[in-house]
Every structure is written in C-alpha cells, then in structure tokens.
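Task 17 of the worksheet. Students: predict the tertiary structure of the chain below and write it out as structure tokens. Keep your answer in the requested format; marks are given for formatting as well as content.
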Amino acid sequence: MPSILAARDLRKSWGGTLVLEHADFLLQAGEKVALVGPNGAGKSTLFQLLAGEARPDLGDLVFKPGLHFGYLPQVPNIPPDTVVRDVLSAPSIEVQRIETDLASLEAWMAKPDAWDAPDASARMARYESLHVELCVARAAVSSGAAASEAERAGRPPGKEPVLRSDAGSGRHAAIFIENREESARPFANRSGA
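Model answer:
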C-alpha cells in the first residue's frame, strides 16, 4: 500500500517549550487514524504542521503529490452554531489566494497602458494559468461539499452537524486528508503555509 504522508524526526517548540521531539509516522492510502493524547501532548501542533500553519523546527514532512486536505482548527474563527457543511464548503485558503491574484491582474488589465508593458504577455500567461488553478482548487472544495451533501441525505431539515464555539473543555481539532490522483497541483505547493 503506498504512503500518502510521512513524518521523519519532527521537532517543534513554542518559545522555550518543547512540544514535539523525534515524531515519526507513516500514513498509508486507505488508513484511518485517530490522534489521541492528553492536553499539551502536541496534537494541535501536529495538525498545524500538517496544515502548513506552522513549520517544524527540525525534521521532514513528505506529502504524496495530489493530496488535498481541509483543516478545522481547535478554536475556529467562525460564528456560533455554524453548520459544518458551510465551513467545509467555504473557499479554501488556496482559492482565496488565487482569487486575490486574479483580481490584481484584472486591475492591471484595466489600466490604459497595461498592454504596453514589457511583461504583458507573461502576465496574461499567468492569468490563464491562475484560472486553471482556480478550477482545480474549486473542484476539490466542490467534491467535499458534494460528499457532505450526500452524507446529509436522509437527515431531517435542520439536523445538520453544527460547530459550537466552546472555549471550555471538549475543544477539538480535525484534519481531513483526501488522496486525489487526478489533481493537477501537488499538496506540497499548498498556499497559506
């Protein structure tokens, strides 16, 4: 069975506090894994490393090309009682980055002298490639939303899973990883990292 994610000798500290040391693991295609441990054991830190929100001090994370993921932090910045489906189908950081880049290029195109610039052809090529990237990124989000919709089928209206903003005990973090062979963008090039 091929591996889709590997960590080798990960080390991470926050200030003077060592949170992860010599962390090694291998995730094979098709495996289902749960990460369980006491508070302060480094579970959320590991999720942040996987999602690209933090970088390891030492060690390597290796992702199979074509791997897509979603990350819901331990304390999400969302309104209370938000339906999980709405969070999972929201534009990803990658989609937001691409849309920002496209808007910047469109603002440039609107300038009267834009087409006289020596890099006009390169900018247009970038504009076209960003549209392809946007289609791929949106397809990844759409397939997740479709899966959520299919999962919800048969539930009475208003019975969708809801995220609760609970600052007390019982907070959780989740990361969803999907292996997509047809993806045009390797996971290692994810944005927002």
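Marker's comment: Residues 120-152 form the longest helix (33 residues). The CA atoms of residues 62 and 110 lie 41 Å apart.
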